[in-house]
User: Fold this.
Amino acid sequence: MQLHVDIPTYREKLEAAYRPLSETCKDVDRSELKTAPEIQGNGSHETTNQHKTVILKVKGKFEPFTSFAPLTIPTQLKSALKGLHDVPHHWWIGHVLAYITRLQPTVKSELESLKKKLGFSNSTFVTLTNTLIVNRLHIRRSDKLVREAKFFALEEYMCHVIDLAGETQAGQSRDKNVFLATDEPDIYSKAKLTFPFYNFLTIQQNTKLAAFNRETKQGFLGIVQDIQLLSDCQDFVGTLSSNVGRLVYALMLTKTRKDSITVCTLDDDYMYYGSVPRYLEAIADHNPTNETNDEIQLQLGDQVYVNPSRLMCDRRCFGTNSRTRKTGYFPADKIREYANPVLYQGFQWDESD
Assistant:
């Protein structure tokens, strides 16, 4: 498996931060790529498994073109994952991304040194109970506000942080430590001034690079560091309209169960461009009572297609009920996601393991 990036500067940054996709398949004859077929889907069966070399391209419109697109899980893992994780399709894509983002040894070593400097625990974060940082706070500004996302003030993020800094389920008070990752240089000083009872930790050099020199090699490595540190925290407050936010969430799921972490998103729900259609199941009836008349009825067991970019801050989703064909809003706490299993040809799994 190889990653081919035509823009040299992008390729150099990726190779500096991450290990090769394959440690053994490094020498593919590029002439083979000219005639190699593109991976296509045909129901739940691959049509290119008879070829030695195949190509997986990024589609410009991000439309699903195969059943093996993100947010499916291998049918072979369905029973094993049923009791392991409450969102197995998120867990699965998280492990795929964790593999892709394996750090180069030098980058990993620098990250470990940085953790010691900031006060992160040296544990492997299997349970996330020994890490110093309680909350992770990611504030994305700059180019994100041009056309992709809404502006949220620091105070809106901190409302969730304050809630998270309360008592744990065991009745113990959490430390008020917050790791802050942002591309706005003034946020760190404002946070310390406005919320003096919280201990904010940040990497100011990474903030400056993200704000002014993101396209440089050092700027990219700074983003890589922030992503890894954010994913090692217990809780997350940010926007999942951000690619960084979604990557952090996915990596976080590989280290613990979803029900042992808290993710507070100020805008979108988790989504993956190019994923298979996202369907959810109603776990309770819902009869609209709001005066604006913009909600739809749900019955227990209804299948609902939901647009993840329309998850509202008041915890309402926007989607279409496949039974009634009605489209509108409904409470997010009355639906649940379910995994879409697909037969992955060639995937080996021994259930006795």
